[in-house]
Amino acid sequence: MRRVAITGMGAISAFGNDAPLTWAGMRAGRSAIGPIANIPTDLLNIKIAAEVRGFDPAAHFDSKRIVFLDRVAQFALVAAREAVAQSGLEFRASGLGERTACIVGTGIGGENSHNEQSQRFYGDKNPRVHPLAIVRVMANAPACHVGMEFGLTGPSFAVVSACASANHAMAQAFEMVRSGKVDFAVTGGSEACVTVPTIKAWEAMRVTADDTCRPFCKQRRGMVIGEGAGIFVLEEYEHARRRGATILAEFAGAGMSADAGDIVLPSADGAAKALSGALADAQLAPADIDYINAHGTGTPANDPTESKAIRRVFGAHANNVAVSSTKSMHGHALGAAGAIELVAAIGALRDSVIPPTANFIDADPECDLDYVPNTPREKPVRAVLSNSFAFGGLNCVVALRRI
Amino acid sequence: MSSVQDTIFDIIAKEAGIDRAKITPESTLKELEIQSLDAVQIIFEIEDHFKITLPDRDPNFDTESVKGLIDAVEKLVAAKAATPPAA
Fold this sequence. Notes:
Chain A is α/β, with parallel strands linked by helices.
């Protein structure tokens, strides 16, 4: 079977506007969660998030282009430019774009534009809605703009599965490259979900923390919303090797499942099925895995369930595998989460450093794994799993291997 | 039965889909086998009905039991009545 290499990586997150800054923040164990600064907070009870700060769209796009781009598409484009530049592939000039898929996940899509237009219409009683509202709001816009920028004319679409959107998108892109349907893919996830109505909606559900995000720890009070994007270039392995590309990691496999149970409460069975599916697909044994980037939202429900699922699949090796939630630092970027967390997975493989679970105080007896509390750990990392478990019970785990 | 209690019983029965006769002031939401998402909806409907905001995870308010909810609502409704509306 064909193998799949990752030859480009780009990101934008609360740590900064590129992948090196994003990895450096995680690697240092520095939490980028802070007071919300980009939107008014007077109507909010939860006043913290992991926002992308100091992002100036005009530094990246000319004014004719910006009118087409919601913040979610801007993030995707900035990350895609970084990833494609790193890959060294000239998709348009060389004609490779014809053999390239472009699949970008998002949980919510053009939320900022949706909110702006609703405010104009209902709030300001302005009957004129912007003529580009539709193309800014549509959830496939990030995939379309990335494809247009680089001339990618293979299969292209968005994947929507809430907090698992990025992992599902990347898994789909991986399958296409592995099967030979395409030779390359530009894929990942993007989210720009910090608006007053979305934060209010999370507040109403009572699953967000008001202090900070403390996954797997006894004092955890819930998740903290983040935003950003992660975009990667996947390439058929032999092609990457022949042209002497820098291979960041091998995309080795993916496991997907659905709980088909509760719309919010996760099931250990569903998570375990995705974990064991990823191992089988990548032809990896539990003992081959040195690090799991957990879904680790910091909610009461997720963390014990995820721990139980890992223990079930990993058996005795569960005590040896390092498990951390980098959401403790970059927040929960919903449909971009798995993509930002793939930066952590790649960083761990390449630098032999496990990014920690930050903000950790006391262990919760219901969470009994090695969560790498607070301090990064140097350790050789041969293979990694990265978990995403979405509302709706949609699970996707991806497996990466060091080259 | 106070009207606040009456309304809260109605809301719990409707949102959780349970027999109203099973609810007593002494019941906790857990004893009534109310799932977390149903509990969140009950709190929302109570807030919306009385136009109040119930505190989230405030140790001075007990929102785990029916009696705690009734007391909290009565306290907040009284506080609201004592505050003159903004001009």
